[in-house]
């Protein structure tokens, strides 16, 4: 009841149906589907609702559904699908990736039902067997729908085509956003560690200390060993140091004033 020309996802659905052990019931369902006994079939939310004409004048109402995937789990699945460009490209082109089940399996989920016991169904006919021939007819017509639109299976799991594709595009675009460049911290130059190139604050008041306030003034006379041949050496050295200190202080003062004037 399946052909090699069917897409792989349709073949997988039909293989699931053909694994059912009550073959006669499946054959009657297949004939019902091919002979036009299914008067209408449509989605109501995530359920498939159908009217199937049986032996009675009034058509039977049959429904079929799968266990839905929660919103949280769909978020994980869509995030995983968005990470692989190939998956996104195939889905956006209306094709089912051959390895899509691995994405669901990583999150402990299934897209395709494992067996017919995972497919829930109900029919208003008096037949106590489930699936009855009316529900079996829906199985085969769903296979036709899968061939035209693989997103039917997603809708059975609680995600409509447009919603899934929009979320997939959004996740893909978010993952492709360029990350802002972080400028590297400048490498410190140790030889310039003590350099200060910034101008002084113009509000600063430069006051050169008097000689009495300097370290030389506080130290007093130099404690050099007394030597008759060098009586004046200590005094001369102290005078020279004071002069040098005064020259340096004056130079710093003038440079600071000039820098303040430039601003």
Task: Compose a concise summary of this entry.
Helices cover 47% and strands 9% of the residues. With 263 residues, it is α+β, with helices and mostly antiparallel strands.
Secondary-structure map with pairings?
Elements (H helix, E strand, L loop, with lengths): L7 H11 L4 H12 L3 E7 L2 E6 L7 E6 L5 H13 L1 H8 L7 H7 L13 E4 L9 H16 L2 H6 L4 H15 L39 H5 L13 H30 L1
Antiparallel strand pairs: 1-2, 2-3, 3-4
Q: Structural class of the helix and strand makeup?
A: alpha+beta
Largest sheet: 4 strands, antiparallel
Rounded average pLDDT: 81
Total DSSP helices: 10
The structural domain count equals: 2
Helicity level, as a percent range? Answer: 40-55%
Which stretches are low in confidence, meaning pLDDT under 50 for 5 or more residues running?
none
Beta strands, count = 4
> Strand arrangement, largest sheet?
1-2-3-4
Helix and strand sequence: HHEEEHHHEHHHHH
Question: Strand percentage, roughly?
Answer: 5-15%
Overall, the morphology is rod-shaped
Radius of gyration: 45 Å
End-to-end distance: 93 Å
In words, what does this structure look like?
It holds the Pfam family SWIM. GO terms for molecular function: zinc ion binding. Keywords: Metal-binding, Zinc, Zinc-finger. The protein is an alpha+beta fold and 263 residues long. The chain folds into two domains: 8-175, no CATH class; 199-262, no CATH class. Helices cover 47% and strands 9% of the residues. It contains ten helices and four strands; from the N terminus they run H-H-E-E-E-H-H-H-E-H-H-H-H-H. Strands 1-2-3-4 form a four-stranded antiparallel β-sheet, with helices on one face. Strand 1 and strand 2 (47-52) form a beta hairpin. The longest helix is centred in the last third of the chain and has 30 residues, at 233-262.
């Amino acid at each position: 009841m399946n052909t090699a020309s069917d897409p792989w996802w349709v073949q997988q659905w039909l293989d699931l149906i053909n694994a059912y052990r009550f073959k006669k019931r499946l054959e009657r369902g297949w004939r019902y589907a091919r002979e036009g006994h299914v008067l209408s079939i449509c989605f109501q939310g995530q359920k498939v609702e159908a009217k199937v004409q049986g032996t009675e004048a009034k058509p039977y109402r049959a429904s079929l559904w799968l266990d839905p995937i929660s919103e949280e789990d769909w978020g994980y699945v869509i995030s995983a699908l968005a990470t692989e460009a190939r998956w996104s490209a195939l889905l956006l082109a209306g094709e089912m990736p051959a390895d899509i089940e691995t994405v669901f399996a990583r999150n402990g989920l299934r897209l395709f039902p494992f067996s017919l016991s995972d497919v829930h169904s109900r029919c208003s006919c008096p037949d106590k067997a489930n699936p009855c021939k009316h529900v079996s007819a829906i199985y085969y017509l769903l296979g036709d729908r899968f061939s035209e639109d693989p997103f039917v299976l997603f809708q059975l799991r609680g995600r409509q085509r447009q919603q899934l594709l929009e979320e997939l595009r959004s996740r893909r675009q978010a993952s492709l956003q360029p990350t802002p460049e972080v400028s590297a911290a400048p490498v410190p130059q140790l030889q310039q560690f003590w350099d200060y190139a910034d101008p002084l604050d113009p509000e600063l008041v430069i006051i050169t200390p008097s000689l009495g306030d300097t370290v030389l003034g506080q130290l007093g006379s130099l404690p050099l060993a007394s030597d008759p041949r060098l009586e004046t050496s200590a005094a001369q050295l102290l005078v020279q140091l004071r002069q040098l200190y005064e020259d340096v202080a004056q130079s710093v003062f003038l440079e600071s004033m000039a820098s303040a004037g430039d601003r």
